[in-house]
Design a protein that fits this description.
Structural class of chain C: alpha+beta
Largest interface: A-C, 26 and 46 residues
CATH class of the largest domain in chain C: Alpha Beta
Chains: A alpha+beta (86), B alpha+beta (128), C alpha+beta (607)
CATH architecture of chain B: 2-Layer Sandwich
Number of helices of chain B: 4
Helix content of chain B: 10-25%
Strand content of chain C: 5-15%
Number of strands of chain B: 6
Oligomer: heterotrimer
Strand order of the largest sheet of chain B: 1-6
Strand content of chain B: 15-25%
Radius of gyration of chain B: 14 Å
CATH class of chain B: Alpha Beta
Number of strands of chain C: 17
Number of domains of chain B: 1
CATH architecture of the largest domain in chain C: 4-Layer Sandwich
Helix content of chain C: 40-55%
Shape of chain C: globular
């Protein structure tokens, strides 16, 4: 089990009602997603891929091959949505 | 009638654009029956006839230039109007827009209420 | 000549030396080949500007141009362009502005204004439909942009829309902007060009109309476009709520936010700064540009701290960075006030903030002394930051050096500061550190006006890594991404809509809108519009090559090529520009010197 910091950015913080939280999870991303859903009630798994994404320590989960990601203590997970520049 | 909630308005002027398109089949915002006025550094205000049930304008008109259409819409008879703008002064919702001389009255776009349909923030809403 | 639907159909030519004007028809060929806006400006400047001219002399030409969608129902159809040879960079510059100025110009019956020559005394250009007056404006000279606009409206009518320069433009500060109804033609020093021409302001009132080719189709396409924008989580969610700073946390998380002149690290209070703070502490009202359902702009007021009571239309993401993290500054009120002062004096907030961060690094390294500045200026000192904004705006003291941009400031202060003068071709870098998204490095290096994030914005595609194929820290695909963005954005900047519309609307939607509006058959093809975008970019490249741009200028500041961050997502990365650049020239059809090849020019109809 590892402790990771989770933050919901911008609009998603509004949607989920959560900005930051720390969760205890098994060290895989699917487990972490499940823990996040339990802790916040936000249906994260179903949102992924439809404009919502996950960054682990600033890197996209799509790039990291989510099954292979190993989480460590102190890692930072950011839940973001596809956004444009300004 | 049409309600306007100023706190939801962003000053986008889409109401002006679609009003002019509905009436002239082109974009001609200066001839729209609804006008947005800036009030920098705050968001401003929209001027238009709400087609309200009170119709203070009709009572104020000295020339009997305002009448009701069969659908109950307040309309202006330009031939009788002398552009005194007493109707505008009497309106409880504020000044009416003018074409530089005569007051302009919303005609509900033949019941389509385009400004209400298109307002992105729903600052303009129907009520009855 | 029958008017083309969607266009005003006329060009206003102004000669400030002779104090005369002329109105000519808008040529159909120009419309079909260059669309409008940026495309019009590129063609005019390429054809008419004498190569090698001094940008602050009477030889420079200033073009104002609207697109077909400007001033129409098309969502975000508010934009116009000012193009000049930039006094800051010595090369092409086009600056894009929202708000209401462009739509008013269109309603007055002009698609383009071409301003040549130079007045001996300050003048103002008053446009009332096709009635044009060049009038004496000494009473306005010296006024800030807000007061100038207010006075002009008092004198001529409240329904005039005003584009004007402030003291910065009047003093030919190289990063001077043109302000228009609360929005900005910000970058590249077009304000200085107007100042050199002694044209204080353009005030326009338009009571005319814009024809629509296929009314029902145009209405239907708009309904769909408005719906797309409304349901999109960005344009219909995050952006209306947080403004342009909706991406702030995201940019921070991914290592893209440049800290303290791109040195990285942290600064006091930096960890608490985000888009939520802005919204909670500053925003009061949402403000939209003409025909825009997004309403990303905000009217803000500072409610606590040393800047209590200060107002700004903003803060924008770029300024939130340039007066924030770039200066190691977390005093929110000072960020709002610095942006307000940028509007007040009429200066580019990106260049100003970037330059102040540069000065702060120089100060901390002992390259600039307290004696030279007149005060201390370490990172995080917001009072120093405000002082420097004023000095730039007033062209006083050290502002006379700093206001000339970091390239010249580094030449002046010397002692190795050139290594961290963060500019490309003389234009200061905006709020993205390319070491965390290599495509932005290529974007900065190859943008037509110098380091710019609005010619190609590859951040989303890179960092979100669509389908897991694109890695922000790899060079693969970046050349294609940058070229495609540059070509499409040139179309968008020629159509007259805001780039933000593209976060919700696809190529097809914008194409359908302009086709329904104008009825021009060739505008119904995305492929053809992209072709025109590519043509515009190649024409501007020819302009730049003519002004002396070579491959050596398609580069990045030494810091980005040689220094790597010690921590974060971009740890250990420097930008491998060479391989991306070579790939870029290949996909562009340019030779190894970065010059468009003969074959390419023939294909594009430029030869």
């Amino acid at each position: 089990m590892v402790k990771v910091e989770v933050c919901f950015l911008a609009q998603i913080a509004e949607e989920s009602g959560v900005r930051k939280l720390v969760i205890s999870t098994a060290n895989t991303l699917p487990e972490a997603v499940s823990e996040i859903e339990k802790a916040t009630g936000f249906p994260l798994a179903s949102k992924l891929g439809s404009g919502y994404a996950i960054l682990v320590n600033g890197r996209s989960y799509q790039l990291l091959q989510s099954e292979e990601i190993v989480l460590h203590d102190g890692d930072k997970i950011a839940i973001i949505q596809a956004l444009g520049g300004g | 009638m049409i309600n306007y909630e100023r706190k939801d308005c962003t000053g986008c002027r889409i109401c002006e654009i679609v009003c002019s398109m509905e009436h002239f089949k082109k974009i001609h915002t200066k001839r729209a029956l609804i006008k947005y006025d800036d009030d920098w550094p705050r968001v401003g205000n929209v001027k238009f006839c709400r087609q309200c049930p009170q119709r203070a304008c009709m009572q104020a008109c000295p020339e009997e230039a305002l009448y009701l259409s069969p659908e109950g819409v307040v309309q202006l008879d330009r031939k009788r109007c002398v552009a005194c703008l007493l109707c505008s002064a009497a309106c409880p919702f504020g000044e009416l827009p003018t074409d530089g001389e005569y007051p302009l009255f919303c005609d509900t776009c033949s019941g389509q209420f385009q400004c209400v349909t298109w307002c992105p923030r729903k600052a303009l809403k129907r009520s009855r | 000549m029958a008017k083309i639907p969607g266009y005003a159909g006329f060009i206003l030519h102004v000669d400030l030396t002779e104090q005369k004007y002329e109105i000519t028809d808008l040529p159909v060929a120009l419309v079909k080949e260059y669309i409008g806006g940026k495309g019009f400006a590129a063609k005019v400047l390429y054809d008419e500007l004498p190569a090698g001219c001094d940008p602050l002399s009477l030889d420079n030409i200033l073009v104002v141009a609207c697109g077909p969608l400007t001033g129409t129902l098309a969502p975000t159809g508010c934009r116009s362009v000012i193009a000049v040879k930039s006094p800051l960079t010595g090369i092409w510059n086009d600056a894009n502005c929202g708000g209401t100025f462009g739509p008013e110009l269109k309603a007055a019956g002009f698609d383009i204004i071409i301003i040549k020559g130079q007045s001996e005394t300050p003048v103002k250009l008053i446009i009332t439909d096709h009635q044009v007056d060049i009038l004496e404006a000494t009473e306005l000279w010296g006024l800030d942009t807000f007061s100038a606009a207010e006075q002009l409206k008092k004198a001529h009518g409240e329904d005039y829309k005003v584009a004007c320069i402030g003291p910065a433009g009047e003093n030919k500060v190289l990063m001077a902007s043109v302000q228009a109804e609360g929005r900005s033609f910000g970058r590249g020093g077009s304000g200085a060009v107007l100042g050199a021409k002694k044209l204080k302001a353009i005030a326009v009132k338009g009571t005319g109309s814009i024809e629509i080719f296929d009314y029902e189709e145009f209405l239907k396409e708009n309904r769909e476009a408005y719906n797309e924008i409304a349901i999109n989580p960005d344009t219909g969610g995050a952006r209306p709520k947080f403004g342009t700073s909706s991406i702030y946390s995201f940019i921070k998380e991914t290592g893209l936010l440049p800290i303290k002149n791109f040195q990285g690290g942290s600064y006091p209070g930096g960890e608490f700064i985000d888009e939520h703070k802005l919204r909670e502490e500053l925003f009061e009202e949402d403000r939209a540009c003409f025909a825009c359902p997004i309403a990303c702009s905000k009217y803000s007021k500072v409610k606590s701290g040393p800047y209590t009571g200060k107002f700004v239309e903003g803060p924008e993401f770029e300024d939130f960075w340039s007066f924030g993290a770039q200066c190691g500054n977390s005093e929110l009120g000072s960020i709002a006030y610095a942006e307000y002062l940028s509007d007040y004096y009429g200066i580019d907030a990106i260049s100003a903030g970037n330059a102040i961060g540069f000065v702060m690094e120089c100060f901390e390294k002992g390259i600039i002394t307290e004696e030279e500045l007149g005060f201390r200026a370490p990172f995080g000192d917001h009072e120093a930051m405000i002082k420097i904004v004023r000095l730039i705006g007033e062209n006083q003291g050290a502002g006379q050096i700093i206001g000339r941009g970091v390239r010249r400031a580094a030449e002046y202060y010397g002692r190795g500061s050139g290594d961290f003068a963060m500019h490309v071709k003389g234009l200061e870098l905006p709020a993205y550190d390319p070491r965390a998204a290599l495509g932005m490095g290529l974007a900065y290096a190859t943008s037509d006006r110098g380091a710019c994030h609005l010619r190609a914005w590859t951040v989303g595609a890179e960092v979100l890594s669509h389908a897991g194929r694109i890695d922000p820290l790899e060079t693969e695909f970046k050349a294609e991404l940058v070229k495609t963005d540059q070509d499409w954005f040139s179309v968008v900047n020629s159509l007259g809509v805001c780039l933000f519309s593209t976060f919700a609307l696809g190529h097809n939607q914008l194409t359908d809108l302009v086709h329904a509006l104008t009825g021009i058959k060739s505008f119904s093809s995305v492929k053809n519009l992209l072709f025109i975008g590519e043509k515009i970019n190649n024409l501007i490249r020819l302009f730049n090559v003519r002004e002396g741009v070579t491959r050596a200028d398609d580069t990045l500041p030494p810091r980005l090529l040689k220094e790597a961050h010690q921590a974060g997502p971009a740890k250990g990365i420097t930008v491998p520009l060479k391989e991306m650049l070579e790939q870029y020239y290949l996909v562009r059809g340019w030779d190894e010197e970065g010059t468009p090849t003969e074959a390419n020019l023939i294909r594009l109809g430029l030869k």
